[in-house]
Design goal:
Oligomer: single chain
Number of strands: 9
CATH superfamily of the largest domain: K homology (KH) domain
Largest sheet: 3 strands, antiparallel
Shape: elongated
Helix content: 25-40%
CATH topology of the largest domain: GMP Synthetase, Chain A, domain 3
Structural class: alpha+beta
Number of helices: 6
Distance between the termini: 24 Å
Length: about 230
């Protein structure tokens, strides 16, 4: 794919939209530079057709975004082996933490999904899912030890992820309305790759706001801006 193009239109917006269609990307995936503005017209050019030129350049993807979009293609044997390793770990872990907790490990298409439920399971979620994410990282490391092709592991505790997704989608709606009203961009608090994806997905169809991520690693945040 071409990294940058110069697009034309009767207005800046039209020029940008034409360029986005050519690149087949959304506005938050490019850097935009106006080369010729429709407001800067001389007396001698007033009779000529109005043309605005803009340069659209694809943004470089960060390592974390590349990881988020990585496709996991693993064999059934790898999935079964990972499932067995996780079950062995959880059996020992649950016995020591709280024997009343229940866990379910299953293969779902090309990934291993783990669900933990019980009265004391909330302790394993932590503040905004921090403990949950840490446990998921441990399970993923165990599942992929000495393995060339990575198996994706998804952990949920007491249906936390669905509840958190609803909270994030409501937040996206609320902040986008504020951005549209004030015209000022809003930078959200640092989020995990999964949570940033929820925000991006919720607002990707909007023609009034756009989103992009800034920062690195644990400090990566979503910025919501007016188009």
């Amino acid at each position: 794919m071409t990294n940058s193009i110069i697009s034309e239109g009767k207005t800046t917006n039209e020029a940008i939209e034409n360029g986005l269609k050519q690149l087949n990307v959304s506005r938050n995936q490019v850097d935009i530079k106006v080369l010729e503005n429709e407001d800067k017209r001389s007396f001698f050019s007033i009779l000529n057709p109005r043309v605005v030129k803009v340069e659209l350049k694809l943004k470089e993807k960060s390592k974390s975004e590349i990881i988020e979009k990585k496709e996991y293609k693993v064999s059934n044997e790898d999935l079964i082996d990972s499932k067995n390793k996780i079950e062995a770990f959880l059996k020992d872990f649950i016995d020591k933490f709280d024997k009343n907790l229940k866990y379910d490990v299953k293969i779902d298409v090309d990934q291993v999904k783990v669900d933990i439920t019980g009265e004391t399971a909330g302790v394993l979620i932590g503040y905004r899912g921090e403990t949950l994410n840490a446990i998921q990282t441990i399970l993923s490391s165990l599942a992929n030890k000495n393995r060339e092709n990575s198996v994706r592991v998804i952990l949920d505790i007491e249906n936390y992820r669905n509840k958190r997704k609803k909270v994030l989608e409501d937040l996206a709606d609320k902040v986008s309305k504020t951005v549209i009203k004030t015209g000022k961009s809003v930078t959200l608090e640092p989020m995990s790759a999964y949570e940033r994806k929820v925000i991006h997905t919720k607002l990707q169809a909007s023609n009034k706001v756009e989103t992009h991520s800034i920062g690195e690693n644990q400090n990566r945040r979503v910025v919501i801006s007016k188009i």
